[in-house]
From TrEMBL, chain B:
Residues spanning the membrane: none
PROSITE patterns with a match to the protein in the record: TRANSKETOLASE_2
Ranges in a coiled coil: none
This protein's name: Transketolase family protein
Cofactors named for this entry: thiamine diphosphate
Pfam families per the UniProt record, alphabetical: Transket_pyr, Transketolase_C
Sequence ranges assigned to domain Transketolase-like pyrimidine-binding in this UniProt record: 5-170
Xref: CDD domains: TPP_PYR_DXS_TK_like
Length: 275, 312
């Protein structure tokens, strides 16, 4: 494996975070909190791990990424734009009428979006079909699915979890963006999901736990997942909702609120980097 | 019609009032209590509020269980997830045993706006209408929304009620009469009748103003109950005006337009047209822009009324 360019990853993650803020600000609505929490994970997936070709989004051999927590669309869009799937200018049209970038991912309208999501739990289930198809075609394709910790309260998540281990989907890696918050408050207060590691293990998954903001840990665990045979892998990534913008961090109110002009400026300044 | 309030706001307030006079009322939500406005009930009656997490099927099943135990559950989430994800639970565990559950779904229709197609329920009235035993309500403004909540609590049986996210004009005075199954003639007219539901009632009233400038007098009927539909008021309107236009913030397939057509075809066929989304998914945008793009505005209704009058 080539030496990892951490400087580049850091720069990309910063750009993605700035893209999220600009896009949600321009839209006047959307979900910054759960987008920022997943920014480092998507950075590593798209700039270190996954085989994708922005010039050929439908390349048959590509790895697949499904954003099952579809409300975090801004992080996916900012990542795809950073990777070159489409122009960054599209980000500023997010959620506008006639725009390519819909409020929730639309696979028919946006290059690089693998599955239409937004109804929690559904995307994860679709990733099972993608992983099964890859096995059927004997293709070296990995499927990645990102879930929210509130999202795992959905029954369909566990139906999919059962199927994934039943079919020994070792080409499937799920990542749980474990930021501890949903809309009405902390997971523990709304609907306790613990013990979460044991749940996935008892469903037949190989479970790994990491700090979801450490590039080193994300990289090493994604590489490790490739080695696990006959089981799907779940990576429980401990994250901070709103990560990178001080006034959004761990604030449940920033789940689905757009920053106002001054808040946008403040956020961009904190994130630093060029412009 | 200057004052604007979202029907979900009225719903949340009405629940609190209802909770004070009816101890049997319990409220359930699925991690959207701030948006569905059930949070106000939670604040007032914490022991009678249950957040079930992001799990709409279990939300509905739990409500059914409450209803078997002499409670009156009001269950809320977005219309998409209530009528969509939990459809079969509503059908088999609420509709079939005819349990006293009130499914109060918010954020219905295209005016959800920026969240886009995945969140714009444009099929919910059709789905819910197809379930035997299910009463289907779609109040037009804040006043009728509040009255609907009290009427639902009085009625013993399953009800689906649709509420909207966006602020809409207040049409009614506080003393209006909301009776399940009875349409309301909001405006008189003899040249045609607009049968509207939900937020489209306000648009229909504006359409009437546009048309009256051209010397066309249209009747406006608020069909707040999609099921059981008020056949009497429909047949009367058909006989007296000879032309009917339906208006709904919903797919033209399966909702109000279909319900009205069924009645007219069997009883008094006359020229009729439906205003609604034309069997398409919506997209992200501002509610007002979407109303225009999907041809749901007063101007659109007025145009269709003229078309249908020409077919008389
Ligand atoms: C089926 C379904 N139910 C409800 C919602 C509304 N909703 C959107 S985001 C959200 C909370 C998600 O929490 P979590 O999965 O923890 O995401 P994160 O905190 O990472 O943003 C809810 C309830 C939805 N999109 N889909």
């Amino acid at each position: 494996m080539a030496k990892v360019d951490y400087e580049m990853l850091k720069k990309n993650a910063t750009e993605i975070r700035k893209g999220i803020i600009k896009a949600v600000h321009a839209a006047g609505s959307g979900h910054p909190g759960g987008s920022l929490s997943a920014a480092d994970i998507l950075t590593v997936l798209y700039f270190y791990k996954m085989k994708v070709d922005p010039k050929n989004p439908k390349w048959e051999e590509r790895d697949r990424f499904v954003l099952s927590k579809g409300h975090a669309a801004p992080v996916l869009y900012a990542t795809l734009a950073e990777k070159g799937f489409f122009s960054k200018e599209e980000l500023l049209k997010l959620r506008h009428i006639g725009a390519m970038l819909q409020g929730h991912p639309d696979m028919k309208g946006t290059p690089g979006v693998e599955m239409s999501t937004g109804s929690l739990g559904q995307g994860f289930s679709c990733s099972i079909g993608m992983a099964l198809a890859a096995k059927l075609d004997k293709k070296d394709i990995r499927v990645y699915a990102l879930l929210g910790d509130g999202e795992v309260q959905e029954g369909i998540v566990w139906e999919a979890a059962m199927a994934a281990s039943h079919y020994k989907l070792d080409n499937l890696t799920a990542i749980l963006d474990f930021n501890g918050l949903q809309i009405d408050g902390k997971n523990e207060d709304v609907m306790n999901i613990h013990p979460i590691k044991e749940k996935w293990e008892s469903f037949g998954w190989h479970v790994l736990e990491i700090d979801g903001h450490s590039f080193e840990e994300i990289i090493s665990v994604l590489d490790k997942a490739d080695e696990i045979k006959d089981k799907p892998t779940m990576i429980i990534a401990k994250t901070i909702k709103g990560k990178g913008v001080s006034f959004m961090e761990n604030q449940v109110g920033w789940h689905g609120t757009a920053p106002k002009d001054d808040e946008k400026e403040k956020a961009l300044k904190e994130l630093g980097g060029a412009n | 019609m200057n004052n604007k309030i979202a029907t979900r706001e009225a719903y949340g307030k009405a629940l609190v009032e209802l909770g004070k006079v009816n101890e049997k009322v319990v409220v359930l939500d699925a991690d959207l209590s701030k948006s569905t406005k059930t949070a106000a009930f939670q604040k007032e009656f914490p022991n009678r509020f249950f957040n079930m997490g992001i799990a709409e099927q279990n939300l509905m099943g739990t409500a059914a269980g409450f209803a078997t135990s002499e409670k009156i559950p009001f269950v809320s989430t977005f219309a998409m997830f209530a009528s969509g994800r939990a459809f079969e639970i509503i059908r088999n565990s609420i509709g079939y045993p005819k349990l006293n559950v009130k499914v109060c779904a918010t954020h219905a229709g295209i005016t959800v706006g920026e969240d886009g197609a995945s969140h714009q329920a444009l099929e919910d009235l059709a789905c819910m209408r197809a379930i035997p035993n299910m009463v289907v309500l779609n109040p037009a403004d804040a006043v009728s929304a509040k009255k609907a909540v009290f009427a639902m609590a009085e009625y013993n049986g399953p009800v689906y009620a649709r509420f909207g996210r966006a602020a809409v004009p207040v049409i009614y005075d506080e003393d209006m009469n909301f009776e399940i199954g009875k349409g309301i003639e909001v405006k008189e007219g003899k040249d045609a009748a607009i049968i509207a539901t939900g937020i489209m009632v306000a648009e229909a009233i504006k359409a009437r103003e546009i048309l009256s400038k051209k010397g066309i007098e249209v009747r406006v009927i608020d069909m707040h109950t999609i099921k059981p539909i008020d056949e009497e008021i429909l047949i009367k309107a058909a006989k007296e005006t000879g032309a009917i236009v339906t208006a709904e913030e919903h797919n033209i397939i399966g909702g109000l337009g279909s319900a009205v057509a069924e009645v007219l075809v069997e009883n008094y066929p006359i020229p009729m047209k439906r205003v609604g989304t034309l069997d398409t998914f919506g997209e992200s945008g501002k509610p007002a822009e979407l109303m225009k793009k999907y041809a749901l505005t007063a101007e659109d209704i007025a145009k269709v009324v003229e078309e249908v009058i020409n077919k008389k």
